Amino acid sequence: MSALFPLTLRDVQVRRKRKRVIGPIDLVLDPSGPTILIGPNGSGKTTLLRVLHGLERVNTGHVGWTRNDPSRHAFVFQSPIVMRRSVAENLAYPLRLLNTPKQEIKQAVDDWLQRTGLTAVRNSPAPRLSGGERQKLAIARALIRKPDVLFLDEPCANLDGYATREIEALLHEAAANGTHLIMATHDMGQARRLAHGLLFMLDGKIHEVGSAADLFAAPSTDELSAFLRGDIVI
Ligand SMILES: Nc1ncnc2c1ncn2[C@@H]1O[C@H](COP(=O)(O)OP(=O)(O)OP(=O)(O)O)[C@@H](O)[C@H]1O
């Protein structure tokens, strides 16, 4: 168990232009596997991820990591952000920032190019990659510095089944290597494949939280049952 957890949220609220976006949220998160956020559009998943990563300011309440070290977090967005440099340069960049020795950078870059199947395009400008390749690059660039926590916001939205499967393989491997994944998805198949813990958000609040095995087998609220059936829940 990483020393960053448990993560405790007390009475967390975010308001924008007087509108309550999320909250109040009280939560203690001490994951032993990937935590997946599910919920309808606008229920607050992205905002909660941004709050946990420190990208979003809270209006009230407190977010308490057991050890607060944002440099050990990474975030992957729905639309992958890549630099206008080669694929290999994108991978090397975060390690250069950490003053990693050149030889180690080269080894890590070669390793991640191979793991992501991007070796053949190592010298191509990253913006020219396909959507799936770009997302794999964004995930590899986040994982290359071995973060303790990786937040992902719908990383496979707009990707086909093949690209999704490749990305899930990278995520399974990262989780097995000790990175805590906290990820929002609309894809219930993906949630079932990846989740160890499940957070169901509704109207800015955490409506249900528990082990994925328990909640998928026996949701305790009508709203989660309906959501898992594919009914419209607002
Ligand atoms: N900066 C902002 N200003 C005003 N309202 C905002 C802002 N950011 C988010 N919201 C609103 O907060 C609510 C929660 O949005 P959020 O993007 O967190 O939900 P979500 O569950 O991630 O949605 P989706 O599944 O569609 O991505 C929405 O009603 C959204 O319109």
From TrEMBL:
Keyword Cell membrane listed: no
Molecular function per GO: ATP binding; ATP hydrolysis activity
Pfam families found in the cross-reference section: ABC_tran (PF00005)
The keyword Cell wall biogenesis/degradation is assigned to this record: no
Gene3D superfamilies: P-loop containing nucleotide triphosphate hydrolases (3.40.50.300)
Chain ranges of the ABC transporter domain: 7-228
PROSITE patterns for this protein: ABC_TRANSPORTER_1 (PS00211), ABC_TRANSPORTER_2 (PS50893)
UniProt entry keywords in alphabetical sequence: ATP-binding, Nucleotide-binding, Transport
Protein name: ABC transporter ATP-binding protein
Organism this protein belongs to: Octadecabacter arcticus 238
Lineage summary: Bacteria, Pseudomonadati, Pseudomonadota, Alphaproteobacteria, Rhodobacterales
